[in-house]
Q: What sequence folds into this?
């Protein structure tokens, strides 16, 4: 079974994100970028499937500007076999990403597509679901455990409100990863060296027949308001009074 | 305890902007794979490993220390697993020969990785560090059979190595070595004797440990010319190369010591342990020096690593700690007090740490770069030039970087005040860990004698010219640039002092060796500070040229650090010069019994 993993390049989790002075977005110039942590988990799961003999080939796909190739290299260093880079400088929104991924899936015909449940930059949590709908494939989101069965199905344990839910899906299917699915490995030095020699195919949205133009318009990006100083109350009665009459919450 | 962050921006600046290491693959065909993007990925991943795996073990490792029980040594909790992850990641193979499973990457890149390991956990770094020294010696002097047997295991880290030199009565003067080798009929030898201070002599990381041992053959001439080098495995490899019979080389005890407590420092008893000669009989010292020279540079990196860790810790605290108001009035009136970073004296400490640490990094990596050229440049003359420079600067890198590591760790404690003295904060550990680096692999006093007595006279000053000529050329070319005047003029002054001191030592030392001996340590420091001045000029030149594209203020900070170095650190060369020119009289006049 071929596994396709989608990996997104985002601002590194340790960077303090700054809003651009003109309010059009966040500052990404000279900012450390990394693979989205949920996508690392997706890549790790694919590599584990391959090590367990369940997957035969891992294809890592990333969409975006030229530097996304570095993110694909990171996936290759973790153990993916080859990469596909859909190159575009257009701002990509979840629907465009889902459409582009569908076009790649149509070409590659994998048995499983693994994505992060969301990216830590826009927290949209939409792409996996949209992709599954466009493909007409089953989806298993927020996965914390994956078992591939021999009869063309898989059992996926999902993290849902109040507990865990296990669903059975038919392959091919789309899975999105949650935090507890696995702990991504450190890329080994020999694999970093090997990653250099693994192929990355470059494609464009035009070649895939997809128009990636944004459908949503960003009006304004601002910093969250600074936290205001609190006040001290003298007694419980005063607190109750303020909650009732000023805050109007009780 | 402050969290260490791998200083990748700083490392990149030195590698890519100062040394232009991205061009190494074109310059040296052996390094075709060491392209910029690969090096970047390696540094990122190594940094992550050091921050997330090695650093969290540093303080608990110091608290727990190693355990000894009847010949076996148990390392502190978590170390064994960390080592397993380390070799799984293939990190031991980085600078090694591809013929034995290595990645064949530049030693320069390994320097950067070593710096990060030493910042995160100096004790841990000892184990792979010793193995690498052992690997270098067998690679250079071992027979083909020995190389095939041991190198692949040392490269993949499944076996570790040691260097067994010191004995109870001989440290610096190895000519006094008593361990003896007796011949076996099959061409191997039996070793008898006791070695002490053997780092990584016994531990629980690997299934086998390969000792390299200095010992005397029965017919050996007395003194340093009668020492031979032997390889002595803990378990003698069987026909398949697997660990077989247990060899009678046994750990007698481990030392209780000031620092690097998670590194096992062993007494090793050789009770007829089977061993094999490495290289030629009686040529053990020169074989040992192959690994000693690289090891000395590696110890320099330990000093750098500690200095960086101390600086990071001190800055974090100086920003957080609220105490008193700025002398010129409150800077943060809304807070109960100002952070101590507003105070001139705290800034003096921070900038001293920072400007010397960054200068040390530039100097050490520059020498690392030439170490690679000396071994791999296609042009033999270039190889020789680089080799000369490395030989000259090795004692300086070892001594100055470790002196600075200790000094910076001390300043780190001072910035923390009382909390610096409390174990929980982790700053006093840096002082204790750093202290050994000024001693082992040749004390810093011995480094100074090596510089003055061995390196300066070589080829009537040939080695020295490899440094003096480029600096003189640089000063001449750069002194015309008005924006560089603030930096080049102090460099030129210090350089003139260094030249004058060099000439004086050559002359006075010839007439009276005690003059050279008395001047050596101050001269070594004068040399190092001047070399750092040279590195700072080159760095500030780059920073000035790029100051218009400086969103994160990186280049502006470089310029400010350079100004501090030139104004408040480099002038120490004046007092060093005065002191060393005072001669040996006041040192040697007092009779020993009057002390």
A:
């Amino acid at each position: 079974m071929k596994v396709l993993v989608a990996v997104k390049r985002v601002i590194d989790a340790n960077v303090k994100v700054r809003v651009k002075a003109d309010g059009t977005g966040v500052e990404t110039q000279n900012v450390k970028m990394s693979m989205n942590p949920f996508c690392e988990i997706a890549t790790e799961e694919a590599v584990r499937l391959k090590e367990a003999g369940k997957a035969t080939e891992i294809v890592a796909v990333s969409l975006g500007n030229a530097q996304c190739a570095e993110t694909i290299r990171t996936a290759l260093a973790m153990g993916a076999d080859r990469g596909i880079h859909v190159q575009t400088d257009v701002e990509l929104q979840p629907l465009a990403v889902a459409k582009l991924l569908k076009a790649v899936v149509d070409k590659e015909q994998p048995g499983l597509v693994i994505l992060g449940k969301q990216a830590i930059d826009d927290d949209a949590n939409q792409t996996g679901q949209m992709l599954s709908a466009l493909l007409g494939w089953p989806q298993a989101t927020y996965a914390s455990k994956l078992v591939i069965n021999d009869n063309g199905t898989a059992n996926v344990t999902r993290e849902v409100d109040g507990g865990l839910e296990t669903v059975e899906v038919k392959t091919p299917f789309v899975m999105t990863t949650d935090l507890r699915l696995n702990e991504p490995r450190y890329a080994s030095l020999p694999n970093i060296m090997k990653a250099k020699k693994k192929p990355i195919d470059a494609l464009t949205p035009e070649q895939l027949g997809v128009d990636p133009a944004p459908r949503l318009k960003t009006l304004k990006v601002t910093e969250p308001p600074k936290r205001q100083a609190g006040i001290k109350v003298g007694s419980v009665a005063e607190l109750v009074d303020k909650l009732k009459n000023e805050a109007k919450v009780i | 305890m402050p969290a260490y962050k791998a200083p990748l921006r700083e490392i990149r600046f030195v590698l890519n902007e100062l040394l232009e290491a991205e061009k190494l693959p074109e310059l040296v065909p052996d390094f075709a794979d060491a392209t910029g993007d690969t090096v970047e990925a390696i540094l990122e991943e190594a940094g992550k490993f050091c921050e997330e795996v090695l650093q969290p073990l540093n303080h608990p490792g110091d608290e727990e220390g190693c355990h000894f029980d009847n010949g076996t040594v148990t390392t502190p909790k978590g170390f064994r697993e960390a080592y397993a992850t380390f070799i799984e990641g293939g990190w031991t193979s980085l600078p090694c020969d591809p013929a034995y499973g290595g990645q064949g990457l530049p030693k320069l890149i390994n320097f950067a990785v070593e710096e990060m390991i030493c910042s995160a956990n100096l004790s841990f770094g000892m184990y792979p560090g010793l193995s690498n020294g052992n690997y270098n010696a067998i690679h250079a002097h071992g027979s083909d059979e020995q190389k095939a047997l041991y190198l692949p295991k040392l490269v993949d880290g499944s076996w570790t190595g040691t260097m067994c030199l010191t004995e109870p009565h001989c440290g610096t003067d190895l000519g006094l070595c008593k361990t003896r080798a007796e011949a076996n009929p099959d061409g191997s030898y039996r070793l008898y004797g006791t070695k002490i201070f053997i780092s990584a002599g016994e531990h629980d990381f690997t299934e086998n440990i390969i000792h390299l041992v200095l010992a005397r053959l029965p017919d050996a001439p007395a003194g340093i010319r009668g020492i031979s080098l032997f390889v002595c495995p803990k378990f003698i490899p069987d026909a398949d190369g697997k660990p077989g019979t247990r060899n009678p080389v046994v750990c007698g005890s481990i030392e209780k010591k000031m620092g690097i407590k998670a590194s096992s420092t062993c007494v090793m008893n050789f009770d007829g342990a089977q061993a094999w000669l490495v290289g030629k009989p009686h040529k053990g010292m020169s074989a040992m020096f192959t690994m000693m020279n690289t090891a000395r540079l590696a110890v320099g990196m330990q000093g750098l690593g500690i200095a960086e860790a101390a600086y990071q810790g001190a800055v974090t605290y100086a920003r957080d700690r609220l105490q008193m108001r700025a002398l010129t009035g409150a800077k943060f009136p809304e807070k109960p007090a100002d952070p101590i970073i507003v105070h001139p004296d705290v800034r003096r400490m921070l900038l001293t740490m920072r400007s010397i640490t960054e200068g040390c990094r530039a100097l050490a990596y520059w020498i690392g770069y030439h170490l690679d050229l000396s071994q791999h440049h296609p042009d033999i003359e270039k190889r020789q030039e680089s080799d000369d420079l490395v030989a000259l600067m090795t004692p300086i890198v070892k001594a100055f970087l470790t002196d600075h590591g200790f000094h910076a760790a001390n300043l780190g404690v001072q910035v923390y005040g009382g909390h610096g003295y409390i174990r929980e904060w982790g700053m006093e550990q840096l002082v204790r860990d750093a202290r050994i680096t000024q001693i082992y692999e040749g004390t810093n006093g011995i480094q100074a004698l090596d510089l003055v007595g061995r390196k300066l006279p070589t080829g009537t000053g040939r080695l020295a010219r490899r440094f003096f000529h480029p600096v003189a050329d640089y000063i001449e070319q750069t002194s015309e640039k008005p924006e560089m005047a603030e930096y080049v003029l102090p460099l030129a002054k210090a350089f003139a002092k260094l030249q004058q001191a060099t000439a004086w030592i050559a002359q006075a030392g010839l007439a009276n060796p005690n003059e050279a001996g008395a001047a050596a340590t101050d001269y070594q420091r004068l040399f190092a500070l001047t070399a750092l001045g040279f590195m700072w000029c080159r760095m500030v030149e780059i920073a000035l040229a790029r100051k218009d594209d400086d969103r994160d203020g990186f280049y502006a900070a470089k310029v400010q650090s350079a100004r501090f170095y030139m104004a408040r650190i480099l002038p120490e060369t004046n007092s060093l010069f005065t002191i060393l020119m005072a001669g040996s009289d006041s040192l040697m006049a007092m009779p020993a019994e009057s002390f």
In short: Chain A touches chain B through 16 residues (CB under 8 Å). Chain A has one domain: 2-245. Residues 2-245 of chain A form a domain with the Rossmann fold fold (CATH 3.40.50.620).
